[in-house]
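Now produce a polypeptide, keeping tokens residue-aligned:
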Amino acid sequence: MKTEPKRLKERVRKRNRSVLLRSRVPTLLERGPSLTLAYQLTRQASRVGFDWPDIDGVLNKLDEELKEFREALTLKDKKKAREELGDLLFVMANIGRFLRIDPERALRQTVKKFMSRFRYIETTLRKQGKTPGQSNLFEMDRLWEEAKRKKKKSIVREYAEIIVLAVALALFVRTFFIQAFRIPSESMEDTLLVGDFLFANKFIYGAKLPLVGWRLPEMRAPEPGDIIIFKYPGDKKTDYIKRCVAVEGQTVELKERRLYVDGVLQDEYFTKYVLGDSYTRQFGPYVVPEGHVFMMGDNRDNSADSRAWGPLDKQLIMGKAMFIYFSWNPSSHTVRFSRIGDIIR
């Protein structure tokens, strides 16, 4: 037999639970779809201890509500049937709470599934020159079952399609628009450093189509000052990057540290000479042949360029350097953050 203090504590606890539940019900009723509200209300009731101990109790309640609903239908009592239907939905919301399944989301998914099946029936009948109103129940039931048997694409297939699409898109962009390159040598210092990663615009000079070797129409021809990525004329495989200093028909001449194009001294603030004044630098005059450009590295004393292997055939050009998207210092093993995003000029 319980002592008076224990009984008093139990009454206080029950009263507190009742007050807590009553205080939250009006707030719940002010927002959201009814199924969601029922779901939230059962959660609140569970928190204050007003709940079945396990899901079996809820399933028994479901059987009870179904029985009462059938009785209302038998009596053709519409008001009672509407009330029992609401009770059924509330019990289903409580089952969802036990299973941690949002009933509103579950119902939405079911509606979406059924809509898909209805669309399948309408589309199939339309192909036959019919409408649902011109079909019979047997035919629509057959199409409904047919729609149910249609399997959804597997997750593996969905991911495979996404990957294939991404790869195809990347190849398309790489072939016709933009390609990434890494600077491996010192020939373009200090404009480009070893460890710079850059993007090149392949569209501007007319991207080369794979396999067939054709080129798309160019937006413009290479110009002096452009920093260009191209295939090395020696093996036509290795990627090189140099600066265009002259185009077809122009005359190139290098006198010590001075570059002349068509007899005009060029302002080359970006060049670098590492061997000192005692090193003799003399080239040309040389006329760039048709269909070619003359390429030189900014690090003039440490660059194998057109002075060594001749003018560059424009068919070997791949693209124009755009900007640095990443830079890694191989000596200090650090990122050169200050270079990231630099426009290449």
About this structure: The chain has three domains: 18-101, 108-149, 178-339.
